[in-house]
UniProtKB/TrEMBL annotation:
Stated family: Belongs to the iron-sulfur cluster assembly SufBD family.
Domain SUF system FeS cluster assembly SufBD core: residue ranges: 138-365
Family matches, as InterPro entries: Fe-S_cluster_assembly_SufBD (IPR055346), SUF_FeS_clus_asmbl_SufBD_core (IPR000825), SUF_FeS_clus_asmbl_SufBD_sf (IPR037284), SUF_FeS_clus_asmbl_SufD (IPR011542)
Name assigned to this protein: Fe-S cluster assembly protein SufD
Amino acid sequence: MSLLAEKTTRASGLVAHTDSAATFVPDQSRAERTRSYAVADFAMPTGREEEWRFTPVDRLRKLFADEATGNCLDWEETLPAGVRLGTMSVADWQASGAPMPADRAAAVAAANSGGVGVVDIPAEAELTEPVRLTLTGADGALVHGHLLIRVGHHADATVILGHAGRAAYGEIVTIVAGDGAHVTVVSVQEWDDSSIHLGQHDVVVGRDASVKHIAVTLGGAIVRLNTNASYAGPGGSFEAFGVYFCDAGQHLEHRLFVDHAVPHCRSNVEYKGALQGDGAHTVWVGDVLIRAAAQGTDTYELNRNLILTDGARADSIPNLEIETGDIAGAGHASATGRFDDEQLFYLQSRGITATEARRLVVRGFFASIVSRIGIPEVIGHLMTAIDAELATIAQAEQVTA
């Protein structure tokens, strides 16, 4: 998309409203898509399905095969006092009523993981340090991962989940926030250039709870992260922030589904990405469903993409489906564009080099969302990584000059 598409819907007595891209399947509600624990309920993707049409499925066949591998990523954890790390069986995870997989890759990961890692944060805990889990691949092997994060009622916690190294990784993560809890989950993807990562993150927001989910995607040949949010009681708040930087040949895809089925809940989604290099491709799809029972919902989603060089492509599709007119507000916005030449000229006219001017413009582009992450160590690491990405442009320009 190269045009700005921004629409806002306010309560206006409508009985139902659907607002989606013209290329989407007509008359198909987001609620109608298959969800199941059984791999057999999902056909092998061909790339013609709506949920796979942007994804290079021909390079993902081994992640769709319903076979256990027995492989694991290296795992390191830092657990503050009171936090427990354990396991449960896949059958017990299913019996708990956890959200079901929403595509074949997630179903395969759940079924073939061999067990579920469980992080338990006790009720009313106030963690002063984050829970840190770092997963690292060493040899590019196929791995299925499965993680459950349970946060007790009225707890306050941050979980940082890091991914690095070489792997073909299918992942499913379930995050359950108890009533009144305040939870931040940060998922950082800094894979090697050859890695593939297909992940599904399901967030269940308890009554009067607030959950912030942050996705930072910088590495990997193909990374596709689906983040789904639902509400277990009224008064819940869900925020999803994302930052991604895509280089030549990379495919970075982020999909979100916020399912408002409970009254008086809030959601806010904001993702920003930068792209550089031939064949760099990003996809952002944001689906929000406000069901008939979800009166008083307030929701907004935003995606912005900055194209830094020729040969890069960004697809951005926000979708809003509303089944009740009794809402506080709902809207979405999406835009993709290039550097602002006037900004660059202004900076260069004041003695700033072209390279430094570009760095300042990109930092400014990300600033509004990075500042909202609220975790100093993540912010500092992210900005350092972005500077490193920009340095590759400067080096390429010097070579061709």
